[in-house]
Structures are given as C-alpha cells and as structure tokens.
Amino acid sequence: MTLSAVGLRLRLICKLNSVCVLVVLGAGHPMKPHRLSLTHSLVLHYGLYKKMMVFKPYKASQHDMCRFHSEDYIDFLQKVSPNNMQGFTKSLNTFNVGDDCPVFPGLFEFCSRYTGASLQGATQLNHKICDIAINWAGGLHHAKKFEASGFCYVNDIVISILELLKYHPRVLYIDIDIHHGDGVQEAFYLTDRVMTVSFHKYGNYFFPGTGDMYEVGAESGRYYCLNVPLRDGIDDQSYRQLFQPVIKQVVDFYQPTCIVLQCGADSLGCDRLGCFNLSIRGHGECVEFVKSFKIPLLVLGGGGYTVRNVWYFHFLNSPSFSLLLCAEYFEYFAPDFTLHPDVSTRIENQNSRQYLEQIRQTVFENLKMLNHAPSVQIHDVPSDLLGYERNDEPDPDERGAEDNYTRSSHTHTHTHTHTRTHMSPFLKKSEHLLEKKKKQNKKNKTSPVPQQFSSGVRASGPLVQLLLDI
Length: 470
Fold this sequence. Notes:
The chain has one domain (3-385, 441-467): Arginase, Chain A. Helix content is 30%, strand content 9%. It is built from 14 helices and nine strands. It has helices spanning 3-6, 17-20, 35-45, 62-65, 71-79, 89-94, 107-126, 156-164, 182-187, 236-254, 280-291, 307-310, 353-368, 425-443; strands spanning 10-12, 53-55, 132-135, 171-175, 194-201, 225-230, 258-262, 297-300, 405-406. The chain starts with a helix and ends in a 27-residue tail after the last helix. Residues 1-26 form the signal peptide. It is found in: Nucleus. This is Histone deacetylase.
C-alpha cells in the first residue's frame, strides 16, 4: 500500500532535536526531553521523512501563550533562570515551579518551541494543508492557567484547541496518558465546544488525583467531559474492549469536526512512573482506531519515562522493521536490542470484567444525556495567530533528502470572510504539491487526494505507526 493509494496527506510538524538535546530538567528528574532526539534519529535512519513533510517549528510568543495562561505567569517563565531564581522566591511558590517543575537553562525557549509546533499543527489543519499534524514534543496536559504542574509548564494542547475552534465547531480531545488530563479538562469544563475524554489511572492518591467518572462538566459543558478511571495492570485486551466502543460512541454522538489525540507513553508496561501493562502494539491500536474515523487529527506526545519505550515506533505489517538501524542510540535498546522491547510486567490486572462493564455502562448513560451535537452560529473568524511572513534559518541537520524538508512553514493571513489577502511561500508550495499530486492521480486514473484523512505519530509510544502499512 502506498500513500497515494490511501490518499494520505501527512505532514510531520515538529523537528526539535537541536533544542531538546540541550534541555535537562535535572539528573534525577524522570522527564527526559532527550527522548525526542532518539525519535528524530529513528525517523532519519528508517527514511520515514520521505513519507511526510517535515517543518521546523514556529516559536510561540508570549502573546500566543497568554491566549490561555495569565500574563504574570508567562512573564515569570520568560524571566526566571537558574542564575536569578533566588530573586523569584515568592513567584516560584505562587506558580508551583520547583521540584516537579524545576527551573532549567532554556526553559522559556523549550516552552516556546513545543507550544509553537502544536499551534502550527492546528493552523495547518484549519487551512487543510494536511489531514494529520504531529508534534511529538507536545501534549503537556497538566499545565494550568496560573501555574505549572506535573512536569508541564505551558499547556500547548489548550492553546492549540483554541486555535482549532476558530474554524471547527466541535473539537474532541482524547487522552491516553496514564495520568488524567486535568489541565485540558479544567480549561474546557464549562463549554460544549470541546469534549474531553481521558483514559487514566485513578485512585490510591495517583497524580493528579482528579478524573473520577462523575466529573462530567458543568453549565454548558455538562456531560461534555468524559472520564474513564482505570485500575492497575490493565492489559491490551481489556483496554481495547473499553477504548474502542467508548470512542466510537463519543464520535457518533458528538460528531467532532477535528480530533486532538494526546499519546502519553507512560501507559505502557514497565514505565518508570506507570502501573499499566499495555504493549507497544496495544497502545498503537488506539492511535490507529482514532485515525480510522478519517477526521482531521492533531497528534501530540505526552508522558513516558522509560526511554526505550517512549522513542520506539510501531510499524504494522513491516517485519523488516524489527531490526535496529539506529546505531547512535543503540545502547538504549538493551537488553534485547529490538524495536519490540518486552514491556510486560508482573502487575496483576485489577480491572475485572464487572468493573469495566460498570464503567462502560456509566459512560454510555452519560452520552445519552447529550441531545445533539452542539452547533455554532455564523460568526467572523478571528485572524490566525500565525498570519505573518518569516524566514527560517537553515536546518543544522544535513542528513536525509533535503527535498523532503521544508524550511519555511507559514500560513496565510485572511479576512474574516475567509478571503486570502495574500499567499505565503509555504502555502504556495503546499498548494503546488497538492496540484501536482492531483495531476499525477488523474494521469494514473486514480481518485484525487480526499479532503479528510490521515495518519500521524509521535515520540510518545508507537506513534509513527501512522506511517503504517506502507
């Protein structure tokens, strides 16, 4: 199967290795941004960049971040550093920056990069430049409006969804991180424009302590918040039997026009901070199932604290990909040195059939309370956050085919009636590529690229599995 045969228009939005290699939250800190470099290396060595378009990330500004966060908090993140943090003692406490969310060199730059990449992906989906946008550094779902939380400083998910809402009447957010997506739920708890669905470990004081199935939203958002609390040791079969029917019902009832999928890999077995027993294939099946709805999709990363799990990619029907081609990070695959590390644990599956059935019935009852998919009245569309022209500096990574790397990644500005006042070089190139593809399809007597479909991936588990079946 080829990309043209299934009509994929896949764009990989993030290339963060040059930034993330330098980011260290602390020697003993479980969050390792270095994992993104490993993912990038796999993409290069397996030639996956040839099957997608790779863009350097837009750097989110302070103004972009303040679409959700308070100005005082973002101003603090921009100013604080390890060298001057003694002068911010009160602010460190106020904004919950310390042990779990430490100050480190390049903090604001890191936040700007991963937030900008997610925002860039949302903008490209809005303008139908791609069907699936991927930012494997994004998905920091714990950050709150006024504070950092759970290794998360800026909530790129909320900011991206706000951008998607300019064009999409209904956005579905799905979270498969082992930790509850509390920051995103809190942001959209009172609205029906965004439906949040989170599958997570709940109970026994597990962080963040929220996500009970009876947290269903409030006011206009009542019943548009769906939580699926799980117990220790859930395996692939149990997870699948719950995930697929729940998500299908949600899509049928809510009819989203865009989906944001947070793919935290800490739900895999053997994770340093996790307690589930999902395999890499099981985790990847969730991504594949969401992709099957053929709805515009923004795929983001998330948690994942055992490096060999997090940077691995799952390739369906590709036996040759069981061998390693990544020499520079080969030692991270110890002790088995394969792309399918054994992540099984001895944790007993405490999710009985009765418990899973109880959750499923409760979820379905809540969905029945949704009378219809909410609509949005005709209104002027605010200008894009990325409506500007800029020139990217040359990419320092010289490996791979340069023709598959696009240096500039702008989106066009437009009037409130969707009439473009000018076309950026990026959009011109994108439309040129699509037009070229249509002519090729016509010549080969195949159907043109459909308007809605795709696949995507990320560093947080089996995510390049969206390149699958190729």
